[in-house]
Amino acid sequence: MLPRENMITNTYSRSSTPRPLHPWRETALFCFCLLFSFLPPSAQAQAQESGFMESRWVVILSAYPGLAEAKADAEKIAKAGAIPFSMEGRVFDKKRGLIYPDNFEVQVFAGVYVARREHETLLTNSDKLTEYLSIERSDGYEGFRKGYYIVVAGIYSLEADANRQTARFKKWAPTAYAKKTRIYMGCMN
After folding, report:
1. pLDDT score for 137
2. pLDDT digits (tens, 9 = 90+) for 165-181
3. What fold, for 53-184?
4. Per-residue pLDDT tens for 91-100?
5. The whole model's pTM is what?
6. What is the DSSP string of the chain?
């Protein structure tokens, strides 16, 4: 518990419960995200390396050198496992590989690949978070062999959760495994 002199009273609510006095943290995070959004993609990548990197477990169901094979396998596993498959709006470009389209609604993602960071997403025509299968580029994850399209069944903070998800899919993806990596979890726009 913080000493009383490091607390302030919330005068904007009916409660007089003290809350920690740390407005500099919120201000610093806001300023970082604002400055980060104006950096070119190469500078953003360098900034991501230094901060906001967190350990995660990626559940990989299969890996292929080509997108078509990965997509066919993802669709087969999704149907068998009764779990949605989503490309998250990404498309294949012959020169750039799997990317968000150049006219993507979130401008900072337009024309580039951004690796999946979460276990769930909001699917089209849905207002609730849903677990899903996706195809990712292996080079989007630290420590992964480059040049593959991987079918991902989830990303987890805890190894035990990743192992449960891996076991769930072994029936349809016998080579499934969980791999530890570090993922940028900071501001993306």
Report:
1. 96
2. 999 999 999 999 999 99
3. Alpha-Beta Plaits (3.30.70)
4. 999 999 999 9
5. 0.71
6. ---GGGEEE-TTSS---EEE--HHHHHHHHHHHHHHHTS-HHHHHHHHHHSSEEEEEEEEEEEESSHHHHHHHHHHHHHHHT--B--TT-EEETTTEEEB-TT-SSGGGBTS------SEEE-TT--SEEE-BEEEEGGGSTTSPSS-EEEEEEEESSHHHHHHHHHHHTTT-TT-EEEEEEEE-S---
